[in-house]
Amino acid sequence: MHRTRWLVTGLISAAMAMAGLNGAGFASEPAPSGAPAQGSAPIWPGQAIFQQNCAGCHNGNSPKAPPEYMLHGMSPTMILHTIDEGVMKPMAAGLTEQQRRQLVEYLTKTDLSTYKGPPPPKMCDAAHGRFDLTSPPPRVGWGYDNTRFVPAAIGGLTARDLPRLKLKWALAFPDATQARSQPVVAMGAIFVGSHDGTVFALDLATGCARWTARAGAEVRDAPVVESWPDGTMPAHRPRVFFGDIRGNVYALDAQTGQQLWKVRPEDHNAATITGTVAQWHGTIYVPISSLEVGTAEDPHYPCCTFRGSVVALDMATGRKQWQAYTVQQEPRVVGQTANGTQILAPSGAPVWGSPTVDDKRGALYFGSGENYASPADDNSDAVIAVDLVTGERRWSYQLSKHDAWNNSCMYQGHPNCPAERGLDQDLASSPMLVDVGQGRQVLLAGAKSGMLTALDPDRKGAFLWDLRVGRGSLQGGIHFGMSAQGTSIYVPIYDSKTTPQAGTYTDAGYPGMHMVDAATGKLVWRGAFFNGCGQRMPCEAGISAATTAIPGAVLSGAIDGWLRAYDRQTGKVIWETNTAGDFPAVNGAMAHGGSMSGPGPAVYQGHLITNSGYGFAFKLPGNALLVYSLDGK
Q: Nearest CA to 311 among 287, 334, 293, 338?
């Protein structure tokens, strides 16, 4: 079988798994050059290329690859960028430039010689383009504080204020069908990344662009603006840090977008960055994950050689200070598959989420994912603690044993599927350090298994308690992140119906919002289940996105596209809005909302800022950044 055909599920579906957007800027089915006269079916040379390289997965043989009709709704620029510069570049290496263009023209039914992309955001005038250096980024959310609680003094919102929220403005991310970057507010601007690799600094009041900058590939993590003390001016020009899915880390001037440095701290060709960097005393800590889990779909690929890690970089120069691997032994050949391909282990254990800084103990905590090959070791699905200064490991605690898995396990009889055929029970969400009274803290870890586990940071991660909040599934369980107000822990559960073997669970699971007491490990309430899909397809209920807590409530976007707020005491919904729709955007296009997964809402000075759109694994695509404010002012 053609190598690209096996790989197309893990990578092209990750980049292209989305249903059609037909809004402004998306061209509609002109005939290609040399096409028959009107009344005849157009001839697209790329159709044969698709049939040879892609159809084996996208037309029914892969449980995760979207059908061909879903790919026809992507923008030409996005597909071309994906195969020229993004995650599909290695897979498209065997195609000529003309063949790549023909493939894009066939999938989008667009003649690239006449195509014009959607409009970029409007640039700010002098009044709205000015940065306020007296407003440092508040230390809330990924990159700052993983409890994701926004006090009223920062957010300007409590539970009582939520009914007054109205849409203030929307932005349509150009050439995007998913919006996965957590917005960060600083200096009167929203900093956010996008699907096509553009990073924006947008005026909070109007949505105009103070600057834009282009990374080499999609930016899924939050752009983190370095902190300085409230009430003071920064000691130097503020910088903003982020990574892209090709594994590059960037430092930009936060006021101009000028690139200061760019490094790729992990040289494995499948390395990627999906979690937000953390900062501490002139150092940023970068989580490294991998796309090799998808590369393993090729039966002739020796699986696997990647090891997850966290890398410490100097803020000023990007110089590597240390690298702490999850899998501490280098992979070695341990056997061969039924078709004679080498098996390398131990491997895998990627770091998907943002690390947690423990300034009190001088420690850094992060979670790992599954091993990629047999035999599994004790570093997968684990909470790991390292020294902030040296990167030396202090302790680790494994939540799920024997979890060796890669994308090949979605096929029956695939030779690269590990013997354990694990359940892919990553710790994709960030660990949370929570005060529980009398000077004590607990470290909380939520996994895709649906288990919430509490560890003692003062006793080398000693076990305290665990609680099964969800049933768990290939896509979660607890997926992207929890939040906390005091000892109230808000736990979102997805509990997708799909199993790793591409079947369906017979039970409903526990999708929705849940609250757990961190001090006792007791479940306080389960929120009512909601399914707002209606007739929209593909659609599923449940909460995959990270949650954000404000006084008296927790905010959460769901897979069905609804953004809801739950009362802290009862779990009842006290405010909701449907983001899976069309919104006139400030850049002259139509913004399309969809499934909400990955980042949670940002809250700042009476504003609620959220992304909508998650065109991956049969979710509703979208390209919207939505900004709500009190009474829309």
A: 287
pLDDT of 144 > 80? The answer is: yes
DSSP 522-555: -EEEEPPP----TT-SS---S--SPPEEETTEEE
The CA-atom distances, in angstroms, between 500 and each of 10, 292, 311, 347 are 14, 17, 31, 20
Q: Could you tell me what percent of the chain has a pLDDT over 90? A: 70
Within 8 A by CB and 6+ apart from 569, the residues are none
Q: Write down the pLDDT at residue 57.
A: 59
Q: 3-108: what fold?
A: Cytochrome Bc1 Complex; Chain D, domain 2 (1.10.760)
Q: Among 72, 28, 44, 246, which residue's Cα sits nearest to residue 615?
A: 72
The span from the CA of 574 to the CA of 551, in Å, is: 13
Q: Report which residue type is found at 150.
A: V
Q: What is the largest CA-CA distance in the chain?
A: 80
> Rounded mean pLDDT of the chain?
88
CATH 2.140.10.10 fits 187-535, yes or no: yes
| Strand 512-517 relative to strand 440-446, pairing | unpaired
pLDDT, one tens digit per residue, over 219-234 is: 999 999 999 998 899 9
Question: Backbone phi, then psi, for 344, in 5-degree steps?
Answer: -120, 135
Nearby residues of 13 by Cβ (< 8 Å), 6 or more positions away: 57, 58, 62, 64, 65, 66, 616, 617
Pick from 426, 408, 473, 409: nearest CA to 287: 426
The ranges assigned to domains in the chain are 3-108, 187-535
Give the number of residues written for the chain: 633
Dist. CA 446–CA 495, nearest whole Å: 13
Which H/E stretch holds residue 16? helix 13-16
Q: Is the pLDDT of residue 277 over 90?
A: yes
Determine how many CB atoms are found less than 10 A away from the CB of residue 43: 12
220, amino acid identity: R
CA separation for the pair 512, 238 (Å, rounded): 39
Q: What is the pLDDT of residue 540?
A: 82
Radius of gyration, alpha carbons of the chain? 23
Choose among 628, 125, 91, 141: nearest CA to 432: 141
